[in-house]
C-alpha cells in the first residue's frame, strides 16, 4: 500500500462524510467479511416513542404512567425519555423520587411515595422474581410489529406492558442490501428483545441476529461472528458499543453517537447515514486493488 494512494482514498472518503482515523483502517475494511450493526441509534433513529400502554387487571393507566415516568425521569436512556414524553403529552404530572437505580441492559428501579417501581426488559422483572400476569400474547404481538416491549411492576406486582417504537433509519434497508450485494454477511447485535429485533431485522433483510445481549455481550458476539465468517466490521453509536468497536477488526462509529463510541472507532460516519459504509467499502476495495 503506497502512502499516496491511501491518502487519496481516505481523502475521497472524507468528501463522502466518512472519516478514517488511520490508513490501516482502509485495508481492514477491505478485508471484512461481516458487517455487524448495533440496532438502536444505528439502524434506527434512536428516538423511540411510546405506542402502547396496557395495564394489568386492577391498575389504572395514568397512575401507572405517573409512577413509571417519575422514575424514568432520572434515566438518560432513550426509552426513558419516550416514557417521560408520553406522560407530558397526557398531562400526567411527575412525583418526586426518593431512591433511584439504573441497571445497565435491564432497566431502572426507584421509590416513589413509599412504593417501589421497576421498569425495564422482561429479564429485569425476572431478576426480582416478578411474574407477568396476562398480556403475554399482547407482548409477542407487539414484538412482531418490531416494537420493543417494556414491563412495569409496582410493589412486586406486574402492572403494565408498554411498547415503544423506534423508526428504521432512512436509507438503512438500501445500505443493508448494498452490503449484501458486495458479498458481505450482515448481522444485527442488540440488547433489545428477540422478537422486536427480529421484526426490525426482517424489514431490513438481516438474517443474522444476536438479541438480548447484556453490555459486554457484544464483544462475545463479535468473536462468534469472526469465528463463523471472518474479519468483522462493527457499526455502533452507544456507550455499550465501545468494547465491540474496539474488539472488531474495524470499528465504525455513528458521528452523532456518544463520545466513547467515536473514540473507540477506526472510522467515523459523520452524518450518521449508513450509505457512508457502502461507499467506504467500495473505496477500500478500489484503493487497495490499485496498490496491493
Ligand atoms: P440497546 O440500546 O442495544 O437496546 P441497552 O443495553 O441500552 O441496549 O438496553 C437493553 C434493554 O434494557 C432495553 O431494550 C430495555 O428493554 C432495557 N432498558 C435499559 N434501560 C432502560 C430504561 N431506562 N428503562 C426501561 N428499560 C430499559
Ligand atoms: Mg445504539
Automatic annotation (TrEMBL):
It is found in: Cell membrane. It comes from the Bacteria. Belongs to the cation transport ATPase (P-type) (TC 3.A.3) family. Type IB subfamily. The chain holds residues 475 to 766 of 829 of the full protein. One of its GO terms (biological process) is copper ion export. Its main location: membrane. This is P-type Cu(+) transporter. One of its GO terms (cellular component) is plasma membrane. GO terms for molecular function: ATP binding; ATP hydrolysis activity; copper ion binding; P-type divalent copper transporter activity; P-type monovalent copper transporter activity. Keywords: ATP-binding, Cell membrane, Copper, Copper transport, Ion transport, Magnesium, Membrane, Metal-binding, Nucleotide-binding, Repeat, Translocase, Transmembrane, Transmembrane helix, Transport.
Amino acid at each position: 500500500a503506497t502512502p499516496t494512494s491511501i491518502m487519496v482514498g481516505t481523502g475521497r472518503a472524507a468528501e463522502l462524510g466518512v472519516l478514517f482515523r488511520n490508513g490501516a483502517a482502509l485495508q481492514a475494511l477491505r478485508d471484512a467479511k461481516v458487517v455487524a450493526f448495533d440496532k438502536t441509534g444505528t439502524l434506527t433513529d434512536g428516538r423511540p416513542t411510546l405506542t402502547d400502554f396496557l395495564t394489568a387487571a386492577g391498575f389504572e393507566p395514568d397512575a401507572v404512567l405517573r409512577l413509571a415516568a417519575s422514575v424514568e425521569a432520572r434515566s438518560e436512556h432513550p426509552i426513558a425519555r419516550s416514557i417521560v414524553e408520553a406522560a407530558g403529552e397526557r398531562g400526567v404530572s411527575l412525583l418526586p423520587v426518593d431512591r433511584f437505580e439504573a441497571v445497565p441492559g435491564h432497566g431502572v428501579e426507584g421509590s416513589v411515595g413509599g412504593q417501589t417501581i421497576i421498569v425495564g426488559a422482561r429479564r429485569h422483572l425476572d431478576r426480582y422474581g416478578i411474574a407477568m400476569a396476562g398480556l403475554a400474547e399482547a407482548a409477542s404481538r407487539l414484538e412482531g410489529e418490531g416494537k420493543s416491549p417494556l414491563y412495569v411492576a409496582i410493589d412486586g406486582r406486574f402492572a403494565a406492558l408498554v411498547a415503544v417504537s423506534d423508526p428504521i433509519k432512512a436509507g438503512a434497508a438500501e445500505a443493508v442490501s448494498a452490503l449484501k450485494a458486495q458479498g458481505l454477511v450482515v448481522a444485527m447485535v442488540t440488547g433489545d428483545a428477540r422478537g422486536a429485533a427480529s421484526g426490525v431485522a426482517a424489514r431490513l433483510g438481516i438474517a443474522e441476529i444476536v438479541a438480548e445481549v447484556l453490555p459486554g455481550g457484544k464483544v462475545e458476539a463479535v468473536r462468534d461472528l469472526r469465528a463463523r465468517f471472518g474479519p468483522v466490521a462493527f457499526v455502533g453509536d452507544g456507550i455499550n458499543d465501545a468494547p465491540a468497536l474496539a474488539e472488531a477488526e474495524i470499528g465504525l462509529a455513528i458521528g452523532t453517537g456518544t463520545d466513547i463510541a467515536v473514540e473507540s472507532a477506526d472510522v467515523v460516519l459523520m452524518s450518521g447515514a449508513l450509505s457512508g459504509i457502502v461507499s467506504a467499502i467500495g473505496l477500500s476495495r478500489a484503493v487497495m486493488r490499485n496498490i496491493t
